[in-house]
């Protein structure tokens, strides 16, 4: 029961983050699932693979709930979503295959570096300057491939990359966040499919579907669907820059804890 409640609490928090900051919650879901799975004594060789696959599968549900809330406020650039989705799907699926070939130790190290990068970006309030317009279909597909590939390696909805890219291309921050929540769906869809397929023949615990652990997926998704619209609502009324700094400190703590587990 304690484990189940921890999944629900994690989902509730991730849902708020998805709507509030447009980050899909994966930056929190992956490290916390790693800690929970370790406590459950799941196979150590596949703990990170299970955390990444389960995170992306849960983001499928979170992103739908969040994007609907942003769409109702007219904050989703659907033209961008259509142009970038092909690259997103290919890059994310390919990235999940690459991740399945890598060790948990390597994936942990990569994830820690990514957490520190995102935390530094938030703490220093590094924002790209709007310097250009949105590129054409080919360039958007290429960008989507890169965002999808990296997202699949760290189990996130891509918001930490999608939002800065859109802001750089003269998209207003509220619309960049809303569009990012929509882009998170094809990332999550392709990533979850990739981890499911690539983990199908692995020696995994009961209730696993490839590298997706179904009990965690159920608890996280059920709670995140409820709380994502709340986060989207709060995004239009709370001091986002201040909240990002608190979130960055949380990322530093979790990243350090994961790094120490490597030694």
UniProtKB/TrEMBL annotation:
Keywords: Cell membrane, Membrane, Transmembrane, Transmembrane helix. It is a multi-pass membrane protein. One of its GO terms (cellular component) is plasma membrane. Its main location: membrane. The chain crosses the membrane at residues 7-35, 47-68, 80-100, 106-124, 136-156, 176-197, 209-230. InterPro entries: TM_pro_TauE-like. It holds the Pfam family TauE. The keyword Nucleotide-binding does not apply. The keyword Transmembrane helix applies. It is found in: Cell membrane; Membrane. Signal peptide: none annotated. Belongs to the 4-toluene sulfonate uptake permease (TSUP) (TC 2.A.102) family. This is Probable membrane transporter protein. It comes from Citrifermentans bemidjiense (strain ATCC BAA-1014 / DSM 16622 / JCM 12645 / Bem). The lineage of its organism: Bacteria, Pseudomonadati, Thermodesulfobacteriota, Desulfuromonadia, Geobacterales.
């Amino acid at each position: 029961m304690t484990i189940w409640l921890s999944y629900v609490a994690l989902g509730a928090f991730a849902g708020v983050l998805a709507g509030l900051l447009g980050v899909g919650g994966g930056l929190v879901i992956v490290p916390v699932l790693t800690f929970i799975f370790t406590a459950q004594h799941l196979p150590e060789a596949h703990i990170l693979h299970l955390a990444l696959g389960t995170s992306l599968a849960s983001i499928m549900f979170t992103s739908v709930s969040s994007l609907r809330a942003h769409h109702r406020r007219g904050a989703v650039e659907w033209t961008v979503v259509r142009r970038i989705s092909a690259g997103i799907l290919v890059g994310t699926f390919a990235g999940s295959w690459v991740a399945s070939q890598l060790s948990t130790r390597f994936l942990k190290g990569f994830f820690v570096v990514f957490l520190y990068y995102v935390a530094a970006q938030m703490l220093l309030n590094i924002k790209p300057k709007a310097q250009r317009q949105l590129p054409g279909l080919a360039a958007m597909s290429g960008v989507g491939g890169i965002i999808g590939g990296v997202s699949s390696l760290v189990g996130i909805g891509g918001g930490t990359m999608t939002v800065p890219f859109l802001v750089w291309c003269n998209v207003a921050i509220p619309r960049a966040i809303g569009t990012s929540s929509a882009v998170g769906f094809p990332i999550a869809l392709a990533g979850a499919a990739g981890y499911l397929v690539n983990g199908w023949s692995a020696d995994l615990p009961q209730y696993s579907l490839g590298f997706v652990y179904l009990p965690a997926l159920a608890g996280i998704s059920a709670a995140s669907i409820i709380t994502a619209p709340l986060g989207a609502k709060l995004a239009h009324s709370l001091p986002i820059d201040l909240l990002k700094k608190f979130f960055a400190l949380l990322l530093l703590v979790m990243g350090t804890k994961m790094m120490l587990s490597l030694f």
